[in-house]
Amino acid sequence: RKEVEQDPGPFNVPEGATVAFNCTYSNSASQSFFWYRQDCRKEPKLLMSVYSSGNEDGRFTAQLNRASQYISLLIRDSKLSDSATYLCVVSQAGTALIFGKGTTLSVSS
Amino acid sequence: NAGVTQTPKFRVLKTGQSMTLLCAQDMNHEYMYWYRQDPGMGLRLIHYSVGEGTTAKGEVPDGYNVSRLKKQNFLLGLESAAPSQTSVYFCASGLANTGELFFGEGSRLTVL
User: What is the Cα–Cα distance from B50 to B96, expressed in whole angstroms?
Assistant: First the structure.
């Protein structure tokens, strides 16, 4: 089983839609969780960290469920500029980050 | 502010040739990483370093070697390139325990 699994999509949504991505991880010792964004043919960039209590950054909300080993990202009021691949990232203490394969989002007008 | 710089950005090799990818960061980060990204495979860790003079294997280390002689530089070497090493290579750096990695723009390598 892959350490970090994501639905690859693509998710095709109209502008203004709400869309949610899910991610599961296999190692219960995982301690840190993140969402990265990668635009086509560009390098990945940190979108947001994911905290146990859940956290929000503008239109983006991240949730963590340690019992189910599950992370989610919710995007409200989608914009054309949100079109990208979203990478779920997990790490254990002292180890390198493990990236999921990514979920592709396409927002259309 | 340069951040993370990778050279070269593009390279075409013949099977059996050798080459070195250079990664340089100007943020005084301790941790540096080399990933490869292939369609449908996501980012896979090749090697990483937690400080000057140290290196460690990642998920897919075979066929690659690395060196971290200076804190700001992390070199990735291919001793005898194979077509299976055709990929986009990303270098990244970061501070320990923050989870935020800063990536270079990538190096596109084709092995014929």
Answer: 8
To test the contact with chain A by mutation, choose from B10, B43, B74 the residue with the greatest count of A C-beta atoms within 10 A, namely: B43
DSSP A82: G
Contacts of B100 in chain A (CB under 8 A): 34, 46, 49
| A60 beta partners | A57, A75
Distance from CA of A40 to the nearest CA of B (A): 12
In this predicted model, what pLDDT tens digit does every residue of A24-80 receive, in sequence order? Answer: 999 888 888 999 999 999 999 999 999 988 899 999 999 999 999 999 999 999 999
Long-range pairs for A49-55: beta carbons < 8 A, 24 or more residues apart: A49/B99, A49/B100
Token pair listed for A78 = 């989608």
Cis link prior to B8 (omega < 30° from 0)? yes
Residues 50-109 of A with CB under 8 A from B: 87, 89, 91, 93, 96-102
Residues 6+ apart with CB under 8 A from A20: A72, A73, A74, A75
Does any CB of chain B come closer than 8 Å to the CB of residue A25? no
DSSP three-state, residue B76:
strand
